């Protein structure tokens, strides 16, 4: 029996009306203004009960979702170009996720892996060890959120090296906990008023081709030179425990480092005994058209952090790395009450199974082949588009005052707002808030994908 079958209310004909998941009608349909009356009512309750510090991209309250759509409480069906920030890679309520979760939740919901273990945790670690870059001996540990995974990767690197310093990049995003706030670059909204921050975090420039002063061709070599000489002069190689980098930066603006930069950085780390940590929390699990963004140039990190796409929407994160580094930590040195919760592990096994069976890395490349040419052609018509970039289904356009590098954040907000009001969820990002990013679920159908791009084109015509 499937989870979906078990939950049917009324007769079969109502099934698609009451359930989310892939059987939801895949169309954009607005039946009220956005947000509709029921969402507005909930929003009022939300304002009286939920802290102001939590904001929303689009204040429609969700009733169900699946494939490439999100249906709100007013019955509007919106195209999803966000995947809940790169999480529902396999789609919302994907069949194999629902099946595994339903089965697990009826067996047991929690024992704490540190109290009494269970096989799902081990199976997720086996999958992570197999799928992450490199065929060396690996170990994994599971946590609840991306930030927690990054914190633990740093703990492990410090323990394994006996060093303190952590090197991070301009435009980096690693989370909202105290250490990861220190590692995150952007002040507003992430850090403003929340200090003091953890120490021994050093920031170096990112290889950002579009904004590199010497131009994109020189970016890889020059950035590598600046980064390694700053580590030498301001940190000291022998003090550096880890270099932490998102192989494609997410929140900071979907910045893709030029070929050669990541391999060069990895070999510098190797030569100096510095742990090379790839934060694949946003770029991992098929998103960029490979299992992990590091695969693109065959870069093999010492430690990899994962979260988001790993479990089809349930909270789960991992650190995977070289066995000798991971096992440098004494028994009891890592853990947490909920890390690797059995229901989240079941979801991950269903999500990973889906990625394998539906060949989602290839699907991400198909999305790129459909979207990228249309974004590039849009850029030739609208000079406000300064750069089109990304890989797979992690694509973005950066908006600038035409002919300059001056960020055009208001234009990005206006385009996003047009999309929202017309039934499509898109996100912005970037240190300057001027990047529109596109993160559709990899299972989105081609007609809906094309319709989403058409809506985006229409948005530009209204600027
Ligand atoms: N590392 C690369 O992208 C999360 C943040 C949303 P958590 N990015 C979305 C927000 O505004 O809070 C992220 C990431 C990278 C780490 C994280 C942190 O992951 O699961 O949100 O803690």
What this model shows, in words?
This protein is of the alpha/beta class and 463 residues long. Helix content is 38%, strand content 15%. The protein has 15 helices and 15 strands. The strands form 3 sheets. A 7-stranded mixed sheet has the order 4-10-9-8-7-5-6, with helices on both faces. Strands 1-2-3-13 form a 4-stranded mixed sheet. Helix 5 packs antiparallel against helix 12 and helix 9 runs parallel beside helix 10. The longest helix has 22 residues. The relative contact order is 0.15. The N terminus is likely disordered. Bound molecules: ligand PLZ. Ligand PLZ binds next to helix 7.
Characteristics:
alpha/beta; 4-stranded mixed β-sheet; about 40% helix; disordered N terminus
Question: Would you spell out the secondary-structure blueprint of this structure?
Answer:
Blueprint: H1 3-6, H2 15-18, H3 37-49, E1 62-66, E2 69-72, E3 77-80, H4 83-86, H5 95-107, H6 119-131, E4 138-143, H7 146-161, E5 165-169, H8 178-183, E6 201-204, H9 216-235, E7 240-245, H10 261-271, E8 275-279, E9 303-306, E10 317-322, H11 323-326, H12 342-357, H13 360-381, E11 385-391, E12 394-399, H14 409-421, E13 424-425, E14 427-429, E15 435-438, H15 446-461
Parallel strand pairs: 3-13, 5-6, 5-7, 7-8, 8-9
Antiparallel strand pairs: 1-2, 2-3, 4-10, 9-10, 11-12, 12-15, 14-15
Helix pairs in contact: 5-12, 6-12, 9-10, 13-15, 14-15
The chain binds ligand PLZ.
What are the segments in which pLDDT stays under 50 over at least 5 consecutive residues? 1-16
Q: Roughly how many Å is the radius of gyration?
A: 22 Å
The counted number of beta strands is: 15
User: Which bin fits the share of residues in helices?
Assistant: 25-40%
- The string of secondary-structure elements, in order, is HHHEEEHHHEHEHEHEHEEEHHHEEHEEEH
Strand content: 15-25%
Q: In which order are the strands of the major sheet placed?
A: 4-10-9-8-7-5-6
Oligomer classification: single chain
The N- and C-terminal alpha carbons lie at a distance of 51 Å
| Class inferred from helices and paired strands | alpha/beta
Count the DSSP helices. 15
Shape: globular
